[in-house]
Amino acid sequence: IALLTAIIPSLVTGEWHKWVYTAMTFLVISCPCALVLSVPLTYFSGIGAGSRRGILFKGGASLEALNNVKTIVMDKTGTITKGNFVVQKVVPAQGVPLDENELLWLAAACEGASTHPIAKSIINSYEERKASAAKAGDFSLVAVGATVENIREQAGEGVFAELEGKTILCGNVKLMERNNIDLSGYHGTPGSTEVLLALDGRFLGHIDIADTVKQDAKQAIGRMKAQGLRTAMLTGDGQASADAVAQSVGIDEVHARLLPQDKLTALNEIREKNGAVMFVGDGINDAPVLAGADVGAAMGSGADAAIEAADVVFMKADLSSVPTSVKIARSADIISKENIIFALAVKLLVMVLGLTNHASMWLAVFADTGVAMLCVLNSVRMLYKKFD
């Protein structure tokens, strides 16, 4: 257009100096400096604003994708709850020749090779009881001659092991049902996580384990809802335990008794129903779901595999970082659009003035460099906004 502006009117009027000057003015105005500088800088500023609050975005694409999220899907253990499980009670089944200490020893022996927080809580409880009993001169928890062998972990269900040639099952209800264990004598405790034990097809009893909800969970989920987001929870725990946690913090949708591979299926169902999803988790089992979500967010206190697979990492490991990150993403989107609209509007106006010989080269320089600087300053505003 600048070339045509310089040549065609000049050939008609013969005023080459005037129209070449107008064309040069037009060319300066049309330089896209404001857009090229300000839009990426807005997202860089958003990344900086997040890092100041312990939120690490792995690039501008993560920030842009977060702006389109409609549902926040969360894992329960370590995300909504603290993940510091504590054994509440040990309940041998009726008619079983085992007391509480023997049942706890058997569970601890089975879970000895596991790194799961529930397994650690059982081992810690056993060690504490053993230490207390030893101080009191009671060595019944120590003097157990049998050895648990051939321990094999089944992801999302529990542990298989052997004791003197007999098969031990130690895990959740799903593990028991899949192995046809009669649970007619089992009565669970609503709201608690439970580990069940069986020996050679016979139900031995269960251990009640409680996890505590994070202090900021309810407030954070309230902020998410205020942002127009839907919330959902995925967990491998029983339905009653999952429902109790969801009700206490105000989560909209619950998917319980899920194996690791089931979580990805549930996530895809939520995406098809509600739109783009953000998944927040912290465990090794969460890595496939984090990678499969539109935006994957990992707690900084979680497993390395989860952090590696995530698009966003929350170093503070609290849920309040979720609505804060959404607010940063939305602000970055708004500011980038402000810059685009402002830059194009000014340039178009000055272009029209230039073509009608009402704009000088100084005004053209302002429409290019001046507007670019104003857009840059608007982008940097992201660093000083309040998002908490």
Structural overview:
The chain is 51% helix and 18% strand. With 388 residues, it is an alpha/beta fold. The strands form 2 sheets. It has a 7-stranded mixed sheet with strand order 1-13-12-11-2-9-10, sandwiched between helices. Strands 3-8-7-6-5-4 form a 6-stranded antiparallel sheet. Helix 2 packs antiparallel against helix 14, helix 3 (33-52) packs parallel to helix 15 and helix 4 (60-66) packs across helix 14. The longest helix has 35 residues, at 321-355. It is rod-shaped, with a radius of gyration of 31 Å. The mean pLDDT is 86.
Please summarize what this structure is.
The chain is α/β, with parallel strands linked by helices and 388 residues long. The protein has helices at residues 2-13, 16-29, 33-52, 60-66, 76-80, 100-111, 117-135, 173-178, 217-226, 239-249, 260-274, 287-292, 304-309, 321-355, 361-380, and strands spanning 55-57, 71-75, 86-92, 148-154, 158-163, 166-171, 193-199, 202-210, 230-234, 253-255, 277-281, 295-299, 312-314.
Based on helices, strands and strand pairing, what is the structural class?
Answer: alpha/beta
Number of helices: 15
| Element order: H for helix, E for strand | HHHEHEHEHHEEEHEEHEHEHEHEHEHH
Radius of gyration: 31 Å
Query: In total, how many beta strands?
Result: 13
How big a fraction of the residues is strand? 15-25%
How far apart the termini lie comes to 48 Å
Mean pLDDT: 86
Shape: rod-shaped
**What topology, given as strand order, has the largest sheet?**
1-13-12-11-2-9-10
Secondary structure: helix percent: 40-55%
